[in-house]
Amino acid sequence: MTSETKIEIDVRVRAFLDRELGLFIDGAARPAHSARRLDVFDPSTGEVLTTVPDADTADVDRAVTNARETFDQRVWSGLRPAERERILLRLADVIEAHGEELAQLETLNQGKSIDIARAIEVGATVEYVRYMAGWATKITGETLDVSIPFPPGARYTAFTRKEPVGVVAGIVPWNFPLMIAVWKLIPALAAGCTIVIKPSPETPLTALRLAELAVEAGVPAGVFNVVTGGRECGAALASHTGIAKISFTGSTPTGKLIGAAAVQNMTRFSLELGGKNPAVMLADVDADQAVQGALAGGFLNQGQVCAAVSRIYVHRSKYRQIADGLADIARSMTLGPGLDPAAQVNPLVSAHHRARVEEHIARAKADGLRFLAGGSPVEEKGYYVKPTVIADVPFDAALIRDEVFGPVLALVPFDDPKEALRLANDSPYGLAASLWTNDLRAAMNLVPQMEAGTVWVNCHVPLDPSMPFGGYKQSGIGREFGKYAVEGFTETKSVCIAH
């Protein structure tokens, strides 16, 4: 462990944690109908930070009904697009002004490094809000040159309109709670929808604070609501007849349940799901660059990233050099709480998730796999797992097939790039992949053959608000970011006028 040099907690964070937190409905914190409450933990210590309501079906119905009434009254969609844009731009300014408060809340609740919370959860989120706010004024239909032949001599003009789909349910995971909540919130609002956000029960704090800041920025009451809770809350939201669109980010098994519930009401849905993301490193790769890229792509947020690299296929000529480089750095990385800027590895989000990752590591040991780094438990309090590098993993091992979602890298040597491509694609998942080479021809030939929604070359994990993000195969349906995100919260209406 590191010597702890924790930063001082912001007074606004302490004040927020000292409050009796409720649901956020119709522009204000509200007491829940449900008497149940959920403990919210600090992953670095295992201690309880605060509690939030465990919303029941009645609570969900109240939030959805309020969002529907607000939508029907055109409180938000009835504003000029430029007015919606300005309010969302003000929200970006408010988030930025409260950046340190939000970053500390996220680190305390999720466990990640304060530097990552500042740079990604807040910094990248502010950039995303500013980018996506502009789409409020850029949603367009198109005119259609129709050829309707009857009655003889009649003339028609046809065009399409993009209209907000209605009330959106945004179901948010625990790995990047603030950022992914905003990925759902801002395009939905840019399109003119109202929304009910359900954060993960492990990490509900920043969503509740974000809703308060949205009101401060000028988002009208009832437009942005937050319900906290577990399975009953999630099931009630996914199956509610008042929801017009579900946007879900999380595991593939849960996504399938969400999709099945949505279909019963013919609710539109988009799913950004799991990944078992490969990196393919060809013979000409710069080994030092590849090592640094794999570490950044595999250990960011302790590997709790849906797009993280987790299986690395390396040409045999560079295999030893890259494997040793990864292992040497992994063994040297220091563990500590996210509020200690010197800590390089922080806790996982929960005791439950740590146990799940440790089960994968134990199975790899039982299968006789070769550990180059990690593999032994951390005795100190908190939900820590050491960075783990495992070499020569068989193509059919569970470690290659299953999503671990932790700081575990599986290395596999190859001789023929065609074989590496086949192994990389041999997965039920297809969220992301990376190719490492300085050979332009190889890159241009192999990228189209990689079965993934995003393919990086000589990097892994960078995202941009303009780049569509989503998965092939069982990694999801639909896309986040850019025009695809906004269009996902609209319906297309055809209008035909006889004259």
- The fraction of residues in strands falls at 15-25%
Unreliable residue stretches: none
Q: What is the CATH H-level superfamily of the largest domain?
A: Aldehyde Dehydrogenase, Chain A, domain 1
The level of helicity is 25-40%
Domain module tally: 2
In the CATH scheme, what's the topology name of the largest domain?
Aldehyde Dehydrogenase, Chain A, domain 1
Average pLDDT reading: 97
End-to-end CA span: 77 Å
Keywords:
single chain; Aldehyde Dehydrogenase, Chain A, domain 1; 2 domains; 6-stranded mixed beta sheet; 16 helices; 22 strands; globular
Structural account:
It is a single chain. The protein folds into two domains: 284 residues, Aldehyde Dehydrogenase, Chain A, domain 1 (3-Layer(aba) Sandwich), CATH 3.40.605; 189 residues, 3-Layer(aba) Sandwich (Aldehyde Dehydrogenase, Chain A, domain 2). It has 499 residues and is an alpha/beta fold. The chain is built from 16 helices and 22 strands. It is 39% helix and 21% strand. Strand 12, helix 10 and strand 13 form a beta-alpha-beta unit. Helix 2 runs parallel beside helix 8 and helix 4 crosses helix 5. It has a seven-stranded mixed beta sheet with strand order 14-15-16-13-12-18-19, sandwiched between helices. The protein has a six-stranded mixed beta sheet with strand order 9-8-7-10-11-21, sandwiched between helices. It is globular. The mean pLDDT is 97.
